[in-house]
């Protein structure tokens, strides 16, 4: 459910950006640019941040009950492979959380109304 909470700001921002761009580039292009920027590029960039990496490691340790090693540090900096791996896990966390959150909100009323 953490992923479901994390997906909300990206989806909300996508709507605002699309509305801001509609007048200049058209509706379809505006939504395409907004989705690419806010739902793809921004979560990847967010996943590369050190605090997000630390949060994901702490969540994995707590939820899985296993010891997850800290980020690989080379010459005092985190390697790019570690950053990309962190971004991939963060994006997966957000996508799976968004799908599960949507199903949790949409599916019960649909079943009841059917």
User: In percent, how helical is the residue content?
Assistant: over 70%
Across the major sheet, the strand order is 1-2
Largest sheet: 2 strands, antiparallel
Q: Number of DSSP strands?
A: 2
Query: Span between N and C termini?
Result: 26 Å
Number of domains: 1
Mean pLDDT, nearest integer? 85
- What form results from the Cα inertia axes? flat
**Strand composition percent:** under 5%
Question: What is the element string, with H for helices and E for strands?
Answer: HHHEEH
Short description:
This protein has 114 residues and is mainly alpha-helical. The chain has helices at 2-25, 27-47, 50-64, 80-113; strands at residues 73-74, 77-78. The relative contact order is 0.16.
Detailed description of the structure:
- The chain is mainly alpha-helical and 114 residues long.
- The protein has one domain (2-113).
- Helix content is 82%, strand content 4%.
- A two-stranded antiparallel ribbon has the order 1-2.
- α1 packs antiparallel against α2 (27-47), α2 crosses α4 (80-113) and α3 packs across α4 (80-113).
- The chain is flat and about 45 Å long.
């Amino acid at each position: 459910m953490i992923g479901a909470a994390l997906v909300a700001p990206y989806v909300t921002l996508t709507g605002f950006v699309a509305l801001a761009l509609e007048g200049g580039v058209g509706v379809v292009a505006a939504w395409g640019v907004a989705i690419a920027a806010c739902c793809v590029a921004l979560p990847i960039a967010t996943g590369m941040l050190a605090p997000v990496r630390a949060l994901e490691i702490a969540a994995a340790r707590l939820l899985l009950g296993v010891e997850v090693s800290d980020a690989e540090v080379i010459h005092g900096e985190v390697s790019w492979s570690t950053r990309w791996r962190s971004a991939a896990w963060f994006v997966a966390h957000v996508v799976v959380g968004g799908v599960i959150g949507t199903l949790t909100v949409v599916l019960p009323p649909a079943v009841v109304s059917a």
